[in-house]
Amino acid sequence: MLRPARLARRNLLFNRACTSTVTLEAYQGQTSGGIRHYAAPVTYACVIFEDMRLIVDATGQQIEAAIHILFAMPAPHVTLNDRVTLPDQRQPVIRAIEQDGAIGGVMFPTIIHG
Asked: Which residues form the domain of 12?
């Protein structure tokens, strides 16, 4: 387990590596006509990887995902219904999320797979 000072330094170094940004809009619900509503967009620093990987989606199915977003710390809370916009204006469907957690005392950020 890392000491607090070492963990803070690791988080700082990771945040410096987050040189891209994405816009996240939190899902607010939909009208009776099926129109989805989102909160105001918020921009977050992140690292974006584009490669095909097998992941497990929210239903437990193994699927391929091409875009992976790792947020700088502190990471936002993300749901599958939220909308994310990449720097090139693409809006991939959020297919799986790994929320904040710790492995052996090392924190990792929210990861979106789309």
From this structure: 4-113
